[in-house]
Amino acid sequence: MNAALAMKQYQQVSVHSGIMDASPHRLVQMLMEGALEKIALAKGNMGNNRLSEKGKNIGIAITIIGGLQSSLNHDTEGGLAENLNNLYDYMSRRLVVANLHNDQGILDEVAGLMMEIKMGWDSIPDEFKN
Fold first, then answer.
1. CA 125 to CA 130: how far, in whole Å?
2. Among the ranges given (1-10, 13-22, 48-57), the one the predictor scored with the smallest mean pLDDT
3. Among the residues of 1-130, which ranges form H helices?
């Protein structure tokens, strides 16, 4: 077995076990981290003219954002859920435009928005995380 394949399998097992042990709060953090990672990878792909990989990473980021969007609880979160829903929709649409036009500035914009959301999520006090 080559080293790259072994590392990939190890990472998959590590992620799987991290998901199994994670709280709902941590799962959302992991999704946000994943979206940020894929946006950063897409930006690097764009800069290196690796268009196929760029499209794949942007697609995964859009899927992750869709997962965050679908996890919103509109019954208990009220206006906040609707605002986040609209922001996630905007971010997904902007990623499509970034992909079509190879626009790194849009990737930076969406990453900045996701960082703002993540910083707010990360600052939730422990007593409210469940």
1. 10
2. 1-10
3. 3-21, 24-47, 51-70, 74-77, 79-101, 104-122
Q: Structure tokens of 78?
A: 């009220």
Q: What is the pTM of this model?
A: 0.84
In which domain, by residue range, is 95 found? 28-122
CA distance 11 to 80: 34
Does residue 111 sit within a domain?
A: yes
Tell me the per-residue pLDDT of 29-60, one tens digit each, with 9 for 90 and over.
999 999 999 999 999 999 999 999 999 999 99
Q: Interhelix angle for 24-47 vs 104-122, to 10°?
A: 160
Q: What CATH number is associated with residue 72?
A: 1.20.120.340
